[in-house]
Amino acid sequence: MSNTAAVILVCFAAIIAVSLFIYMIYGHKESSMYKVAKTILIAAVALIVVYVICTFALVQHGQEPNGKGIPYKVLYDDDPLYVHLVKHHCPQCGSRLTIGYDGIIVHSASPEAKNYDFSTANDVSFKGNLEFRKCHFACPNCGFAIPFPEMRKLEREQKKLEKEQKKLEKSENRDDDG
């Protein structure tokens, strides 16, 4: 488990502990604090479930189904929720983007191994060949590929342009009416 994951889980545990404390003190179902504590407790548990599901879905360590038998580790350089929960479309043809990857196989004893993290989700160091998969968005229609951070930047710029265009249209409509 990475340091970030440990910090997040400790924060969730602290939220749950505080909620349970409030829940025990204000145990009357009519109390507003009881209802607040119950809501916080349910939300924290839901966030933990979402976090665990995303972690297991994104940090994959398994056997390649094509028969190579080389374990792999998926590397993300952006927020997994942004990658998987937001619908992304190709800026060139408008098709829905999928997740593609570029892989490199590195042996744990090779000189280039110092540039890679061979630890697994259980903080066990992997020995031998490991494929590191760097993920990106890919268009199945036109072949366009873009890294996650660049796509986020492009989507933000596009959103700004759309907002500015709406403002211009509103101001033109006001000028026409006036």
Features:
single chain, 178 residues, alpha+beta, 2 domains, four-stranded mixed β-sheet, flat
Unreliable runs: 59-67
- Count of folded domains: 2
Which percent range fits the helix content? 40-55%
Q: What is the radius of gyration computed over CA atoms, rounded to a whole number of angstroms?
A: 23 Å
Structural class: alpha+beta
Shape field: flat
User: Overall mean pLDDT score?
Assistant: 77
How would you describe this protein?
By secondary structure, this protein is α+β, with helices and mostly antiparallel strands. It has two domains: 3-58; 72-172, no CATH class. It contains four helices and four strands, in the order ααβαβββα. Helix 1 runs antiparallel to helix 2. The longest helix is centred in the last third of the chain and has 30 residues, at 148-177. It is flat.
How is this fold's topology laid out?
Elements: H1 3-25, H2 32-58, E1 72-75, H3 80-85, E2 98-107, E3 129-138, E4 145-146, H4 148-177
Parallel strand pairs: 1-3
Antiparallel strand pairs: 2-3, 3-4
Task: Summarize this structure briefly.
The chain has 178 residues and is α+β, with helices and mostly antiparallel strands.
